[in-house]
Predict the structure.
Amino acid sequence: MSDEYFYGVTLSSTHQSETWDPEAKGDYPRSNKLLIRQALLGPDAKADELNVVQVETMCLQESIKIPVAILKVGETRQVRLHIEFPDAPVTFTLIQGSGPVHLIGQHLLGALVEEFEDMEEMEEEMLDEEEGEDSQFKDEDDEEGEPKGKKSKMSNNAKGKAPSPKKNAKK
C-alpha cells in the first residue's frame, strides 16, 4: 500500500526549527521520502528583512547544513524548489529573519516511494538508450561528432525548423 500526504511547516521567530523524522516517531514503519516543492513568505513578513531557511540532513557519511531559500518582502516572496530527502532526519531552520516562512511539499510513504524511484530509473534508462541509439548513426566524417539524427532535425528546411504538419493530413 502506498500513500502520499501533504507536508507543510511554518517557521517564524517563535518556531525557528522543525525536524522531519517520521521513523523516530514510529508512526510510519514503511519507507519515507520528503519532497519540498515551495518556500514562501507569509503576508505579515517584515519589509527589508532577509529570511533565510537552512536545511540540515545527512550527506553520505556526514551532516550537511546549507541554505535552501532566501526570501525578502518586495523582492522574492516565494521560490519553487525541487528538493528530495530520501532519509530522515531533516531539520529546517529559520537562521535569519522572523518569517513567517512556509515550506510546502509531499511526504511519500511505502510503495509510492519505490514507484517514484522506479520512474526516475526508467527515465534514466530511456535517456541512456536514446544516447546509445544516437551513437549508432554517427558520421565518421563529421568533425563535430554530432549524431546524424540530431543534424537532420535541424536541416529539415532552410530556417532549421521542423516541417509543419501537412494541411491535407485529415483527408
User: Anything to note?
Assistant: DSSP finds three helices and eight strands in the chain.
